[in-house]
Amino acid sequence: MSAIVFLIVSLATSAVAEKYFPDGFKFGAATASYQIEGGWDEDGKGLSMWDNFAHEPGHIADNSTGDIACDSYHKYREDVAILKDLGVDIYRFSIAWPRIMPNGTPNEINQAGIDYYLNLIAELLLHDIEPIVTIYHWDLPQHLEDLGGWLNPQIADYFGDYARVVFEHFGPYVKYWITLNEPLAICSMGYGGDSLAPGKSLVGDGIYQCAYNTIKAHAKAYRIYEKEFKPEQGGKVTSNIHSPTFYSKTDSTEDIEARERAFEFTVGLYAHAIYRGNWPQIVIDRVANRSKLEGYSFSRLPQFTQEEIDYINGTFDYLTLNSYFSTIVEHTEEAPIGTPSISSDQSTLSSFDPSWPTSASSWLVSDPPGIRYLLNYLQDKYNPGEIIITENGWSTVPGILNDEGRLSYLKGYLSNILDAVVEDGINVTGYTLWSLLDNFEWSQGYTQRFGIVDVDFESPNRTRTYKSSAEWYKRLIAARQIVD
After folding, report:
1. Taking a C-beta distance cutoff of 8 angstroms, is the pair 430, 89 a contact?
2. How much helix, strand and coil, in percent to the nearest 5, is found in the chain?
3. Is position 333 annotated as part of the catalytic site?
4. Which residues constitute the signal peptide according to the record (predicted)?
5. Is the peptide bond before 435 cis (omega within 30 degrees of 0)?
6. Of these residues, 182, 264, 330, 441, which one is catalytic?
7. Which of 145, 264, 330, 391 is catalytic?
8. Which of 350, 346, 355 is nearest to 328 (CA)?
9. Per-residue pLDDT tens for 247-301?
């Protein structure tokens, strides 16, 4: 090797090695109440729709439930000790609505549930770990689901009452709030599909009605905090964006437009009204046109009034992003007029690059550069000010402690997040990987594992064991740079 080439290589290697996450960047991990807590019927907790959904035969791959899960309801101190040992700055967890309000309504408040989360928050703060709290992560009180759930026009009012109680009790200790986790999944997979509770499969109109109601519920909670709590508590509130990275299959105008449609019908459907005002125009136009051709006298997409648009627009203080994978989008011909569906409204096809590594989940592939592309895209589109990545992770089959696939995935994604921060100037201030623990993975039960800490679900003690990825993450946090 010539001296010049050696110098260039040395400088390039040195530049990579010396690239550090900024001092203010916060590392953490994430979980969700139903997936880890257990204690499903203890201490006054009411039934959630996931309690019922998991107990009904045929919904969960291994016929398991979240009745015990990781037993974090009893083992939260052990979990916080793990977080402390890893060296994290932040921990994202969710509050179970029926643990606070057994029927989802304010006429009955369960003090034991409030005490559980106060104790968890106190334990975190004792160890200098900042809580990031999700108010709703899918475990709707069954009573409210019986009233129509997220299709009920009054659900925003129910959610507002719940959020007020949460802000009142926990707001003095919490500065980062997320109202709803992945409304995209709530609506498309729970009301527009059957893989999440309540499994309604209303693909033509349920998704849109659900989206309309989740956006109004978020805005209701945001405005309550803004008016009643923010002046004293000084926290930040947002909803959660769940987005893959969308690429166009070719550089043709048709495929580029298809990529934009795919984004707006998935991410934009839940984000545009909050960050820009109203639905994305392409969604308004296409659903109205398809509805007319299908014989409707109205659009299947509910229309926001101007008062609602003004009330919703700007209801964010920062942006939280759940992102796991990338997808390639192409245009497809308009579907014949028939049974209404969001797929026909959208008119796109999606696929994966066959070179992308695959995980234990059929939907999860690895494309590390995609996260940098997406962060730049969201910055340009929404200009959110601050971004925290609240979910990003990799699944394996059970029993793997030497999880090289997860290590490779995390290393690649965090490297590109670092580049987005250092090279592109994107204000990403934190990262909470999914997940701290192996847990109940919704309709897949315990057949897929996302944790960096193994949980022995055959043991009454639910024994926790570090995987290789946990040891690696601990070293990365200490070094504040990508490590081998």
Report:
1. yes
2. 45, 15, 40
3. no
4. 1-17
5. yes
6. 182
7. 391
8. 350
9. 999 999 999 999 999 999 999 999 999 999 999 999 999 999 999 999 999 999 9
